[in-house]
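Encode chain A's predicted structure.
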Amino acid sequence: MIKIERALVSVSSKEKLFEFCKVLRDFNVEIIATSNTYSFLKEKGIESIHISKYTDYPELINGRVKTLHPKIFGGILAREEKGEISEINKYGIKKIDLVCVNLYPFIKVSEKTDNEELLLDEIDIGGVALLRAAAKNYKETVSVPDPSFYDEVISDLVDNNGFISESLSFKLLKETFRLTSSYDAAIFSKFSFLSGENVSLKCFKKVTDLRYGENPHQNASYWKVLPAKDSLILGMEQLHGKELSYNNILDVSSGLQLINEFSESACAIVKHTNPCGVAVAENIESAYLNAYESDPVSAYGGIYLFNREVNSKIAEYLSNLFIEVVCAPSYSEDALNLLKKKKNLRILKKVTNDFPEYEFRSVGNGILMQSKDEQLYSEIKVYPTFESISEEIMKEILFGLKVAKHVKSNAIVITNDRKTIGIGCGQPNRVLSTKIALSQAGDKAKGAILTSDGFIPFKDTIEEAAKYGIKYVVEPGGSIRDTEVIDEAKKNNIILIFTGMRHFLH
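Encoded structure for chain A:
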């Protein structure tokens, strides 16, 4: 246990500071404060000692040098167990038992400006050093790096009658180094960006443990890329239902990235991270009906995502189905009341777009990082070359591409009237995915568009498409057998469209 008799407080944010320092003073803790903190506490009627009076040295260069002093760091780092308290006492240095510091808001400022001078001003030097020193000596000094920890520290202090448990101090050690490392990473990333380097150093913070992982015998947790503006999972507020599982989060993540592709009213139904039905329409009810009709069998137990408010009509449809999760930007009051009758249904409200510019995936003992797949095509080439593509067909092509890039490879997506009617995914060869998608589409495939995420390597895919009356085939092109594929398409009166861009999703 660590007896708290003296605390150094130097904060940029005054959030919860009055309540925190009042409890410290209730336990007769002596508070040493830097200028702005001292003024705030004085105004609130809380006694403290100005740091300049304590060190007998003025704050220098506009207050940027105030805590970098032997009387401060000696008091933080000295260890009773090493006999160092008697040493510092010789020089009039008192032991500092708690360090409450939050750093200059570099991360917030960096989100608003690229001005180098302003950014440099917001790089904290003394604060980082103070926190690291306190954390290093966690058995005898407590580091408090953020207002979010004030309540826990107060509770521990009250429960232990003026002492802080070593277990809490150790936890704060970890949180301190997590915070300072992410702070340094944000500085590195910002100035790398300003210098034109495509470099990003990311850190992660655990938000919550999950009930279990992909399977019940696996442990799992949810982490966020820092800096994080909130602790929401995928930027979602959960309004009702069981807690989200590992697999739910994977599915919702896949669905959100897909639904974000559309500005029109859209609905996507996701199962095992693959879409099984997607549609856009003039209104959200039509979008839902078209998405559901794409594959009602696979939609059972799926994740339903909307980019418009869920109204009572949609809620009536959903209330008659078994679904795991529904996600939308808002819900009408009647719709929410109706959906809440399903006890376990997880109802999510989209609050923010919570996807960083880069994607991460674990591999062995490392991670892969890549930029997001945000483009659809590089060029459009049509075969036969005399064919022209109408505006309506181009809309259909773009719709198919938007869906195909969110389907696991090998991906084949068949669409008509901007709704999916057949999806083949995750097969080891493209023709097998094609057969699955075509058999699902059936008679609806006649006159439809078939979109492939990768180039078609053999004419067999075209042969299969022709059996069902497919009119357009969209693919990247680039195979050594492109001429053979073009000839087969021409033979079957299929218009072939090359996009010049692959969209693999492994």
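The mean pLDDT is 92.
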